[in-house]
Amino acid sequence: MPSKVTEKCGSVFVRMVPTPRGAGIVVVMVPKKVLQFAGIEDVFTFSRGSTKTLGNFVKVYKFVSIMCYCYL
């Protein structure tokens, strides 16, 4: 992950920050699966808003992972 990335979908706001190598993905289980499928490693995430809405919660992590590939 090259730099800090923020994204919003609905009422869910997510910020992803790169961490040192070996730290792994620091996030709850459902978005962790999405980030692993995207190939993202060593990242800390912060989310706020209505995270109980699973559709928006997963969708915002999908958008963030797409934004990470836009920088490459």
TrEMBL record:
Q: Does the keyword Ubl conjugation apply?
A: no
- Presence of keyword Ribosomal protein: yes
Identify one Gene Ontology CC term for this UniProt entry: ribosome
Q: Which GO terms describe its molecular function?
A: structural constituent of ribosome
Q: Which UniProt keywords apply?
A: Ribonucleoprotein, Ribosomal protein
For this entry, list what GO says about its biological process. Answer: translation
User: What are the Small ribosomal subunit protein uS5 C-terminal domain coordinates in residue numbering?
Assistant: 8-59
The positions making up the signal sequence are: none
Supply the SUPFAM superfamilies for this chain: Ribosomal protein S5 domain 2-like
Q: Which family does it belong to?
A: Belongs to the universal ribosomal protein uS5 family.
Q: Name the chain's protein.
A: Small ribosomal subunit protein uS5 C-terminal domain-containing protein
